[in-house]
Amino acid sequence: MDAPEEDLDIKLQKISGDLINEFDASLIPFLRIINSKTQTSSGNATTTVRSRVRSRDSNRLASLLDPFQELPQLLDPHLAKWISALGEAYLDYLLLPTSSRNKKFQSTARITEGLLMPLPQAIAKLIYTLCKIRGEKVVVRFLSNEVRWLELLLSALEGAEGASTTSTAIKWTWEERYIVLLWLSHLMLAPFDLATISSRNSAQEESVDDDDATTKQKKDVTQGLEWLTNTPNIPGITVRILPLAIKYLASPGKERDAAKALLVRIAMRKDMQELGVLDSLVSWALDALRPEPPSETKERTPYHYIGVLSFLAGILRSSADTSDMDRYLTKTFYAVHSAATSPNPETGAMGSALARKTMIKVIRSITVLVLRNQNNMEDMELVETTIGFLLESLSDNDTPVRFAASKALSIITLKLDSDMASQVVEAVLVSLNRNVLHGEGKKDRSAVDPVEWHGLMLTLSHLLYRRSPPAEQLADIVSALVMGLSFERRSLSGGSSGTNVRDAACFGIWALARRYTTAELVAVPTAALTTGVHKPGSSVLQITATELVAAACLDTAGNIRRGSSAALQELIGRHPDCVTKGIWVVQTVDYHAVALRSRALQEVALGVTKLSSVYGEAILEALLGWRGIGDVEAASRRAAGASYGTITAELAGTEAEPVKRLTQSVALILERIRGLQMRQVEERHGLLVSFAAVLDGLPGVLEGQQADYSNDILRQLVKLSIDALLEILEDCKTRTYRKPELIAEATSRLIISSAPILQAATSILSDGPDNSPSTLIPGPSLITENAGEITQLVLALGPKPAPLKRFVALARSNLQNWLTRQEPELITTASQAALVMLIFSDTAEREEIIREWASIVRTRPTSARAAATVGGGHFAALAMSYSILSTLDLAQEDRMLICDAITERWRTDDNMETRVAILQSLTKSDLLKHNTEVFMGLVAEGLDDYTTTARGDVGSHVRLQAIRATKALWEGAGFDAQDSTRLVQGLFLRILRLAAEKLDRVRVEAQAALALVLRDEPAASLLRLTFSSKPYFTFLLALLTSPGLLLPSISAPLTSSPESWMDSLLAGYVSSADTGNEDLVIATRAALCEFCETSPENTDAICSALARNLKTYQGVDRVLVPTLEIVGFLFRVGIFQEAGARKVVGYKGLCLQVQKAAYKSGNVRKIEACVRVYGGILSSASSTGQQGKEDGQGEVDEGEGIREAKTRLSALMFHPWPRVKSCVVDELWGLYQDERLKGVDWGRAGKGDIQRVVEGVGLV
C-alpha cells in the first residue's frame, strides 16, 4: 500500500485563501437582499433577510468549506464573523410572521421542485458543515447567548413538531433540529433561574393550550416523568424542553448528540436540581435501561439505549469535580453493568457497538468517582468488577469498543495504588502471552486472537501514555511491543487482520519514548530481547529503534510505515546519543520518504544500511518473513527480493571476505526454499527472486576486478549456486505449482542473474584451460549489451563443462513451456532468460534453437487451441536472439531468418494479440533499429490499425504498441539530414493523428513520441501540458504554422505538404471533439474555435481539410461521422460560413459528399449529422446572399449548393424513421421558426401534412 506522492494538506494550504475569500464574499448576498436605494444611519445599504435561497448556491458554499476538514484551524479567524452572520439571519427569519414565511415559500415550491429551499435549512446546513469541520464545541460558542432568543428558538422547534403531522407545512431537516437543539443547550448556560425567563410559570399553564394530539405525544415521550405535570413549581421552559430533548435522545441521527447536551445542561443547573429535575431524570434513565416490559407497545430501538447511556455519561462527566452524582453511583453502576451482561444482548443495549462503547464510558466515570472517595469494601468490589469487565471488553469484535475499554482501563489504573496497578499491567501481559507457543528460539503467534491482541496492545500503549506502569515492568512491556510491531495474521481470503495491532504498538513505543526518562530506559534489562540480529548488551533504545527502522522500511501498510517513522523520531529526539547514527537515521527514515513502499523497500532500506550494519541485518531478517518474500502482492515481493540482494551486497562490502557473505546468504535462501511446502507458492516466488538478486550483487562485490577463480570461497559459491540452479530447474520441469506463472517468472529471473555464475563456472568446473572472462558481467547488464559485446563474450567462453550443458538442456525444456504463456511479466523475463541460455549453449544447438523459434513464429496456428499455446514469448525471444545471430555460421540468405519469420507472420495473421506481441518484441530489442527498412511498413500498418470487434476497439492495443515502436526508432536516432526522411516522414503524420485522437492512453503515448521530433524547449513545453487540456490541442493545431518548433533536419520535409499535415491531424482530432468525454469535447472544440479565430488562413485550412476528409474517408464511419458533426458545429458557431464566403469550400461539392455519406445508410447518428450540415448550409444563405449582392455574384452563392441542401432536407422529411424526421424539424425550426412546425407528432404525420409544411417553409 503506497501513500500518495503529494499530501492533500499542502494543496489545501495553497488554495485556502481563495476558498475563504470566495465564501466570505458570497455569504451576505446569499443570506440577505441588499437594498442599495435605502441606507442605514451609518450610511450602509439596508438589507432584508431572504425567505428562500437556491439549493445550488447552498451546496456551493458547503463545498467551499468541505476541503478544510484536513486543516480545520485555517477557519478559526473567520468563524466569529461567519457564524454570527448565519445566526443573525436565522433569528431574523424566525421573527418574520409565520403565515408570510410559509406563503412565500409554498407559492413557488411546487414549481421549482427542489431548486429552492427555505433559508433556515440552508443556514443549518452551513452551520452543521462548520461543526463537522471544527467541532460543535468550538462552533456553538459563536452563537448568540442572549436569553431573549430562548423562547423564540423553542417555539420554532415546537412549531416544527406540530408541522410534521401536516402535509402543507414546511418540514424541518435533521440539520435544523440539530442546530436548534445545540443552540438551546448553549442558552441553558444562562446565569438566571429559568423561572424568571419563562413566559409561563408552571406545567399547568403550559398544558392549557395543548391540543389532544400534542398532549398524547408528550405523555408518550415523558413516560416515567409524571412529576412534570404534578409539580407546580416547574418552570414552563423546562416543561417544554424536556419532552423534546427526550424524544430526540432516541434519534438515530446527530440530533441525539444535541439533545443529550441540552438534557445534561438543564439537569445540572442549580435551580433545576433544587426542584428535583436531576433526581427524576437519573431515575428515568435507570428505569429506561431495564428490559422493556411485555406490556409496552412501542419497541425500544438500540438508539433508545444509546441516547440514555450517552445522557448518563454526560451527567457523570459534568459532575466529575462535584458531588452531585455521588448518591447515584452504585445504583447507576449496577444498572449499567446488568444491562451490559444481559443474557440476551441482541435484544438489549449490548446489541449495538456504540451502546457498549457508551456503557464503558459510564462505568469508567463511575469508577473514577468511586476511587476518589473510596472508603469501604463495597467500593473495592465495584472497582474489581469494573477491571474484570474492561479486560473482557478488550476482545470485543468492534474496534470502537476496544478503544474505549483500553482507554478506560488506563485511566482507572492511574487512580489505583501501585500494587493494584502493577497487577492490572501483569494481567494484560499474561493475556498477551496466552496461546503464544515457544519453540526453536522463536514465538509462534498463529494461535492468538488478533482482535484481543489489538485491545491488549492498545491498553499497554494507553498505560504507557499515562505512565501507569512502574519502570520495573518495562522489560516485559517492551518485549510485548516489539512483538506487536511485527504481528500479522491473514484470513483465509488473504486479508490482513494485524494492521491495527502494529498501529497500537507504534503508539505504545511513541508513548514509551515520551513518558520515561533516558536513565529509566537504559536501565531496562534486555536479556529477553537480544535474540536474532540484536547483539547482547544492546540497550532497549537501540533494539526498539532497530525494530522501528525495519517496520518503517518494510511494513505493508502506509500508516504503519509512517507511524514507525514518527515513533523513531520521538525515540531518537528525546533520548539523544543512545542510538547508533541516530540523527542520520531520522533523516534517512523520513516520514515522507517511507510513504511510497517501493521507495521505502529499496532506497530507504539501502540508505539506512549504509549508516550501520545493525539496521541492515534487521531488515534482511525481516525480508525473509511476511513483510518481504511472504507478501501477498507479486510486485512487492519483487521489490523485496531486489532489496535483499542490494542490502546483502552492501553488507558484504563491509566485511573482509565479501564473497563468503554472499555464500552464506545463498545457503540461507536455499535452506528456506527446501523447507517450503508445495502450496507456499508466494514464498517460493519471493525466495527465488531474492536468490537472483544476491547473484546480481556478485560482480559488484568483486568491484570490477579480475575474478580469482582459484579462491576457495568463490569456487564454493559457484558450485553451490550451480547445483541449486540445476535443482530448481529440475523441480520446475517435474512439478506443477498452483500459480505456475509466478514460479516461471522467478526462475527466469534466476537464470538471468546466474550469468556471472555461469561465466565463472566455465573455468571453475572445466577440466581444460581457463577460457572464462576475467571480469564478470551481471545478468541484467548482459541483456542490455549491444550485439558486438555479446558476441565477444560468446566467443570467449570456449568449451562448456557438463553442468553448463545440463543447465542449457533444462533451461531449454522449461522455456518451451514458459514462452507459450501470455503474462506480460513472464514474457519479458522468459525472453531474457532465453538469451542467457543461447549465450551459454553450443553453436550447433544455438542455431537449432533459433531455427525452431523462427519456425514457430512464422507459422500461423490452424486452430484456436494451437493459437493459445503460442504466446508472445516466442516473438520476444526470437527478437532478443538477433544480438547473437552473428555467432552462427549461416549462409547469406539465412541472415534474414528472424526478420523474414516475423514479417511473414504479420502478413498472414491479423490477430490483435499476435500483432501486439510482434510490436512488443521489436520495441524491446535491437532488431527494429538494425532493420528499419524491413519493419517500417509493419510499424506504419500498426499505427493505422482500427480493428473493432465485440470487445470494442481492440486495434487500440496495436496502435499503442506501434507508437512505442516508433519511439524506440526515434529515441537516439540523431535525425541527420540523410536519415530524417526514412525515419520520420512515413510515421510522423500518423503519430500526429494519434496525438489528437479520443483514447487517453493512445494520446498520452503519442504525445511522448511527438516530443522526440521537437526542439528541446518546445518538447519540454509539450510534455508539461496535460494531454486532455485546451493548451495541448492548441499546441497541436499551431504546430504546422510554427515550423521552428521541429528539429531543423526534419522541418522542411514534414512541412512540404501542409494539406496532408492538416488532413491527418483532423482525422484524429474530430474523434476527440465529437465522441470523447465531456471535458475532452469542451477542450478540443474551444481550441479549434480559438485557432480559427486567430486568422482567416487558419479558418480556411481547417474547413478545407474537413471537406477533403469527407471525400477521403467515405465509407469509414469512424472518421466520417465525427467530421460531419464538427462541420455542423463550425456552421453553428459561424466559422464555416467564413470559408464558404471566401470560396475556399464549395457548398455544392460539400452537399455532394454529405449526400454520399447518408445514401442508404442505416447509421441514424450519421444521418442526423448530415441534417445538421444541411441546416448549416441553409443558415449561411442570408449572409452569403448579402455578400453576393455586393460582389455581383449573389446568384452564384445562392445557387446550387443552397438548393441542394433544401432538396435533401425536404427528402429527409419523408424518411421512414421518426427520429430522422424529428431531427429535420428541429433544424428547420432553428432556421425559420415557422409555427406550422409546432404541435404535430411528426413521427406519425401523413405525407400530405409533411408536403404542406415542406412547401410552406420554402424547401421546394
From TrEMBL:
GO terms for molecular function: beta-tubulin binding; GTPase activator activity. One of its GO terms (biological process) is tubulin complex assembly. This is Tubulin-specific chaperone D. InterPro entries: ARM-like (IPR011989), ARM-type_fold (IPR016024), ARM_TBCD_2nd (IPR058033), HEAT_type_2 (IPR021133), TBCD (IPR033162), TBCD_C (IPR022577). Pfam families: ARM_TBCD, ARM_TBCD_2nd, TFCD_C. Residues 373-576 form the Tubulin-folding cofactor D ARM repeats domain. PROSITE patterns: HEAT_REPEAT. HEAT repeats lie at residues 386-423. Keywords: Chaperone. The keyword Flavoprotein does not apply. It comes from Podospora australis. The keyword Chaperone applies. Residues 988-1166 form the Tubulin-folding cofactor D C-terminal domain. Residues 1181-1200 are annotated as: Disordered.
